[in-house]
Amino acid sequence: MGASSDTMRRSPAPEPVQAWIAQPPAWLDVQPIENQPDVGLIDLDLGEQEAIRFGLRRS
Which one of 10, 21, 27, 34 has the largest count of C-beta atoms within 10 Å of its C-beta? Predict the structure, then answer.
């Protein structure tokens, strides 16, 4: 999975969020993102970095 979904799977994510990601709805499409270092994103957490990379990949 990705960093964001990994974060949702564990504490301190609220239990309803953990339950939701454990059995995600059919419409949810979690896609892996290559974790390539980018000095422009170094101050962001991994989930934020992946979201930006995903957006750039989709454009």
Answer: 21
